Amino acid sequence: MEQNESKEQNEQKITLIGIYVALLGLVTLAFGIADILVWAGIRPGIQVGILAIAGDDFFRWAWGGFIMICAGLFMLAGSTRVATLQQSAKVVLGGVLVWLIAGTDIFARLCVAIPADVASPAFFNSLSGFLAAFAPPYTPAVLLFPFTLGILYLIWIHDTDDS
Amino acid sequence: MVFSSDARWEMVDAITRQTVTYGTYKHTLGDVLGDLTVKPLTGIPVAFAALYAFWSVFTSFAGTLMTDGFMVKFFDGFWLPWMQSVWPDPASWHYFLFVGNPAADTCFEAFGMLTSGLFVSIGVVLPAVLVFYLMMTLLEDSGYLPRLAVLMDSVLHRIGLHGYAIVPIILGLGCNVPAVTATRILETKKQRFIMMTLLALFIPCGAQLGIMMSVLPDLVGIVMLCLIVGFCIFGFVLNKVIPGENPEILVDVPRYHWPVKEYVAKKLWNRTKGFLKEAVPFVLFGILVVNLLYLGGVIQGLANLLEPVFVTWFGVPKETVGPLIAAFLRKDLAIAQLSTIPMTTYQMVASVVLVTIYFPCVATFVVMLREGWKELIAAIVVLFVVVFIYGGIIHGIGILLGVA
């Protein structure tokens, strides 16, 4: 009986989490397209509030933007019947791609923040200088990162199923 | 004591009862993710993302944090002025060999064994090699590398190789020495020859990448593009020209798992130790030899002799002869030397590509010799032909684009 209920839940085409994933996928896709367009020079660098797309480097914005587009498409592809294993895997894969981009963005900031400025005789940055390196604006992937943590729920439900 | 057949079977049954668990296997999320990363539609974007992360962490750690953040400051701000102040007699030959140019402001310009030599090997190349091997070990131990091999199989078959050729290719981006040894995982002589030749020609090692990032960060993309195009074209040609077979492979793809930190640390230590033992002495020795050749007037003589080929055919200045000789000892050293020669953007790209595809460094040469002298000679012949043709093609494209 309980198994049947869970199966029905899995086969529901549209669920609340599915809608969340679809919205997340759409935003990720839009950010990926924006990354590439700004890099291609359609618009000069964008800054809206705490969001910034500099578009000044092929590797970060064109290649990174392509990965964001793929992440958005994976999430959208997995958003229907999201609780099934196959669909959840697509969503998780999309989330992993966003985490990779956000993780490398945060790591790049960390690497800039640790050493002192070139002109300074000191080797290490001051605490205030270190913290200032993490001030806004942020890249789209970093801004999306906390929202993608909802995907951990999908991993958790399948982990619980396995055990 | 002799067991009857029945007794042996009973023993087998007893062991099986105690060790084997029966049941239905349930597909996990990890399994499905594993499948998705080998299917081309989903696997190729993941491969792009993995390479992106690999390169991004590599440049942030080795370039921004270690070399630009700490090493340049230490070597240019403290080490070089100290060496210049304590070493006696700046006009002497020993000053030229060990400290280099007395008027130099940076370790790249000085080109002494104890200034540029230590800066290149410890300040630039060591952080690059360290982070490269860390990332490589994580890819290997997480189970992603075999999936990348499956994904690349059909592409690599077009140049006579198979999916597992990705292992020497990625290893070669760290150091060509273990990469040449890793060509043994390829089945046929033809495959091993193609792989070895392409490694020697078109795969820049981690040391070279580190130096390129440090001295010409804006041109690394163009140089890499030239090398990738050359890798594909000449791989395709070699596959057509060289007789032999390209058999299919059966790859055992393990499940994804978290790398065990003890194994990661051990692999990282062994690989980095190998680099420190093999590369650092070569860098120091390389600078010593090149400086001796400069002092003896050999480089100047060779530059004059080879000027028509370099200037007319390749479109690069004759001063690049010196770095090309240094490239036989260490290619990273050669690129560091190139950065001090005044050149246009085209000339810099062309000369860096030439240094990369020109003769393998001496350590790689020795390992290739160990794999067979006939193959080595054949690889060198191919190499000279390719350098001549590809160098000319790049110059031709440069002329057509109006940049050469």
Describe this structure in words.
The complex is a heterodimer of chains A (163) and B (404). Chain A has 163 residues and is mainly α. Chain A has one domain. Chain A contains seven helices and two strands; from the N terminus they run H-H-E-E-H-H-H-H-H. In chain A, strand 1 and strand 2 form a beta hairpin. The model of chain A has no long low-confidence stretch (mean pLDDT 89). Chain B is an all-alpha fold. Chain B has one domain (38-245, 278-401). Chain B has 19 helices and no strands. Chain B has helices at residues 5-19, 29-36, 40-86, 93-98, 107-110, 116-142, 144-157, 166-172, 176-182, 189-202, 206-215, 220-241, 261-295, 298-314, 321-329, 331-338, 345-357, 362-371, 373-401. In chain B, helix 3 packs antiparallel against helix 6 (116-142) and helix 13 (261-295) packs across helix 15 (321-329). The model of chain B has no long low-confidence stretch (mean pLDDT 85). Classes of the chains: A mainly alpha (163), B mainly alpha (404). Chains A and B meet through helix 3, helix 4 and helix 7 of A and helix 2 and helix 3 of B. Chain A: The chain crosses the membrane at residues 20-41, 61-79, 91-118, 138-157. Chain A: Keywords: Membrane, Transmembrane, Transmembrane helix.
Quick summary:
With 163 residues, chain A is mainly alpha-helical. Chain A is 67% helix and 4% strand. In chain A, a hairpin with a 2-residue loop joins strand 1 and strand 2 (51-53).
